[in-house]
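Q: Two folds, back to back.
A: First:
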Amino acid sequence: MTTQRKLAFLFIAVPLILPFFVTLAYSSFKFVKLNLKPLSIQDEYSLEQITKETIQVVKSQEAPIPDISPEAWLFDLKPKRKENPVLIAASPVISSIPQPPSISEKIVKEEDPFLMDWRERQPGGRATLSIQKKSTQGSSTQPKTSNINLDEKENRYLNYADVEGTLEWPDLDHTQFFAEVSFYDQIGANGLNDDLSTTLASQELREDVPFLLKLPAETSGHLIAKIYSVSDTQKEKPLYIGRVSDPAYPQNSLFVPKEGLQRLLISMVPTAQYFDQYQTLFLGKVVDEYSLTQGSPTQGSLTQGLSGVRIWVAETQEQVDSDEKGFFEIRGLSRHSSYHLIFEKEGFATIQVPIQILQKKTRQVFVLPPLTKFTQGYDLLLGGRDPSRSVLFATVLKQGVPLSRAVVTVLSVEKVFYERNLEFISVPDTTLFSTTENGKFLLWNTSPGKHKLHIYQNGQLLSTQVVTLSPGVMHYITIEL
């Protein structure tokens, strides 16, 4: 660089740069001066001084940490106990189960003896599991064994009973028809299942073979068989129908005992014929006993009837009310069957009367006695009525005519009372020892239940009748000899 250029840089560039360096030096000096504190101030706020004045160190004696086994960390509140293995021998498999130590343990399994007898009668034997337990006192003690039944097929139906039988098939081609046997808990008024029925068991039969249904033991219901055409896949129109009922009570449901039912036979009839037995009509009329001029029920059809009488069918629990003329009707009662009707109305005695459905349409008149007949008559002559006991009014007929001089004996009854006619009514006479010309006798305040009646005339036994009495009800029956 030439001398001229150096002089030019010195006198021109340096004056321009010099203020910048001066300003930078002054700023640095001022910053250091503002942030620089005396030594006394630093000591006053030193970390050591602050620690001494504000922090108090509390020293305590540390307790040693106990040794904890890994098992203590398990969340099990029950205390652990050591267990010895127990040998379980099941032919041919051998396994082991835990057993707490004890002295002379003995396994006792209580079991119903009837259940054990039932198992022994089953074919094929039983699968058993032997549990052996050894005594802790001495090694000479023999192991003790308890048998447990593991036959699942057998235990599955312990509370079930078998219902088996056959169908009396009509002359049909089995390839074109099939049958269905079902057990329902209830049926409708037409003798078939309805919307309220529940099927407890069912089986289809495509050929003439026996049926087998498994039902809960001691079940009541209705066993019905139907035959359909193979084209009726929805089972809407049965062509033949058959039903099994209790022989003692045809209208009642079938009872399945614990031992089951065997060799049942279901007779199949055309559907129209089956429904015909359920299309019966019972027409009745209720009249006031005091309104009868001669006290004869046959004249009740000409007498004004009682309205608002509640009539119950004891066997089916069906109920109807009499209209303003005393008439009522009951449909669907089975033919050739017996029923009991209960009549209730305020101010009148509650009575029970048996009826029989012998034809498709049946008519009958019923006489309802007022309560005053008893409060002002029988209660005074025979003693007050006990509402927990029963009363029986009976009339003995022979060839449709009341039987006189008939003696009635009942083993369970101390006294049988007889009635005599008094103008238009009959009243009990405690001095009588046989029936009069009206053939009437009664049992007063008798224990409910079954009673056997023996009817004699001139020392000869004419008939024996069994009656069932309900508590608090007056029963009216007619005994035909």
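A: Second:
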Amino acid sequence: MQPLIREQVRPTVRERISVSFKHLAPSGPAVGQYNGIAVNAYGVLPGETALITVAKHSRGILLGDVIQITDPHPARRVVHEDHARFCSPWQIMEYPLQAEIKEGWITELVNTPDVFFAAPQEFGYRTKIEYGFMKHKGELTFSLRGHTTQIPVPSLCRLASPQMNEAALEILQTLRRSEIDASFLRSLVVRESKTNGSIIAVLYLRAVTTIPLRLADLSQLAGLTIAVAIPNVSTGIPAQVLRQEGHSYIEETIHGLTIRYPFDAFWQTNTSLFNKALQTIQDIVPEGSSLCELYAGTGVIGLSLHSKNVNVQGYEHSAAMVRAAADNATRNGILGATFTQLSDEAFGLRHLVKRDGLLVDPPRKGLSPQVHKMIDIHPPEFLIYLGCNIATLARDIRQLLKHYNITHVSGYDFYPNTPYVETLVKLERKTDL
């Protein structure tokens, strides 16, 4: 008779357990085990033991909330922001450990990087910050955007510069004096040029409403836009612009280019490290090649290759960014780059043929199935992939390795104090294809 095998006993929700955590997952949480069951929790460092409360069972994993760290890591440090867990959870550790972990992820998931660029600045590096609105203790205040639970941020966020936060507070104080109902307000986006210090703001509303907010009354801003946001979208996207005063764009000087991008465009968060990534891309793109650039944004990557006589055809789904990219080409006197509106789902073979290479800088979700399909049919000679999500980048690279060999990997910590890392990979087509 076989002995009875005792079934694993799962801790119940709200039960307290002690867990030793081994490493950090690329999605952010620390990973440990309890009686053979995987446990994820934020606010714990590798090698630490923590007393946690079981918050949830999810797909065979226990999700926990930390009550107490019982065996702290030597690199643990004090966090001074109440909301840090939700916007920059890696503030809990000294910066050298952050860089070490991120470089380790690139090595583990892609390949050992040829070079890894740590962040020269831990705080105040962001070019954009977005706050929501809520009533807190009877007063209009900022909340953290992107979370279902409203989290007040009365001290604002250290990832933005003091000047950006001063501009945001000035707007908040004006709105408080007007006694506007918080339910009318969607979010506030503040953007800063790291070249000239110019700051613009976009106030997103939930519906058409009269807002007593004027640029002349705001000392910190070079431009103010008031717009109705598209509903049910996680970030502010204008459905209707109600009013614009002053500048509606930010201008940066980067890699020898003068680049303007509009108030609602994508732009890299960390300008100084983005400049290093542009230099690396220039170094690894062949002189005189012909390049298809997908997810081209406002054109800066393709335009930065003009000194190597690279001919660039850029594609971008946003019409506003396509216009900005074309204007940036004209502004910098670059004739060898053109930009067209196109979604990645509409990407076809005609966009790849007669091009030596493909350059992609996709959103966090990575390459679409349509892009992979076109590469499978017609793999260009080389492919350059710049991505901010190491997990989806690694997934895409694994799929591309049937056609390519990796010839370059580099890492850039665009996002210190968060679990995100920018990775650049060059792939060259296998000779037997």
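Q: And?
A: The longest helix spans residues 162-178.
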